[in-house]
Amino acid sequence: MSNFKVSVIIPIYNQQELVIKALDSIPERDDIEIIIIDDGSTDNTWKVLENKLKRNMILIKNDENKGVAYTVNKGFNNVRGEYIVLLGSDDYFYTENFKKAIDKLDGTDFIFFQTSNNYGMVDLDGHNECGSFKFMRTDFIKKFRYDEFRLAGEDYHLWNKMLKEKPSIKYLDLLVKHYNYPREGSLNWQLNNGIIDLESGLKK
Q1: Alpha carbon of 180 to those of 4, 159, 184, 195: distances in Å?
Q2: What is the DSSP string of 71-88?
Q3: pLDDT at position 43, please?
Q4: What pTM was computed for the model?
Q5: Cβ pair 30, 116 in contact under 8 A
Q6: Is the CA virtual torsion 71, 73, 78, 83 positive or negative?
Q7: CA 76/CA 74 separation, integer angstroms
Q8: At 175, is the secondary structure helix, strand, or coil?
Q9: How far is residue 114's CA from residue 4's CA, in Å, rounded to a whole number?
Q10: Which residues contact 182 (CB under 8 A, 6 or more apart)?
Q11: Where along the chain do its domains lie?
Q12: Count of Cβ atoms closer than 10 Å to residue 144 Cβ
């Protein structure tokens, strides 16, 4: 039986520079594990990760680029923590508030936290589906997985599936993460600019 409270899943593709800030924002605690899945990066990302190895960190490498849905699913399959939280390789935690949030995890299925982006604070209304805005109880989501054909928008579809199971939900009045949006060229930037279709998850 694992004693990890939280498993941080980081899917990554060609982020050799920004991932350093992401990793540095995660506190080294015995109850946190970090699972990083490199989705076939072609730059020096893998070497950077090997040089930044931290306690309780697992590195996994896809032989080729499979997409974020496939990559996060692989992370789901390897978690040992009571809760899962996703961290984009270009995002970062507010470290002290992240530690406070972990201490508030109480068995609720989904625990949302406040997030900022490059515009300022994010209004959670309309963003509940976003996997980056919440802690997810592992035992609740273990039977759910992302649709792997989707290039983006995978959170939206998974969230609607999970809602049918009537999860318990609570909200923390705590700023825990910075979500690096908008960032030109990112998958969410392509989604919100109509390059990728939300329903199909494919490029238009």
Answers
A1: 27, 21, 10, 19
A2: HHHHHHTT--SSEEEE--
A3: 95
A4: 0.88
A5: no
A6: positive
A7: 5
A8: strand
A9: 23
A10: 117, 118, 119, 188, 189, 192
A11: 6-179
A12: 14
Name 6's bridge partners: 32, 83
Residue 135 has pLDDT above 80, yes or no: yes
Written as one letter, the residue type at 12 is I
Element at 57 (helix H, strand E): strand 57-61
Name which CATH class applies to 6-179.
Answer: alpha beta
| Separation CA 195–CA 57 (nearest Å) | 34
How far separated are the first and last CA of the chain, in Å rounded?
45
pLDDT at 152 over 70: yes
Burial 104-143 (b: 16+ CB within 10 A, else e): ebeebbbbbbbbbbeeeebeeeebbbbbbbbbbbbebbee
Q: Token pair for residue 148?
A: 């792997």
Question: For residues 77 and 145, is the Cβ–Cβ distance under 8 A?
Answer: no
Q: Which helix (H) or strand (E) holds 98?
A: helix 95-102
- Average the pLDDT over each of 108-112, 113-117, 180-184 and give the range with the smallest value: 180-184
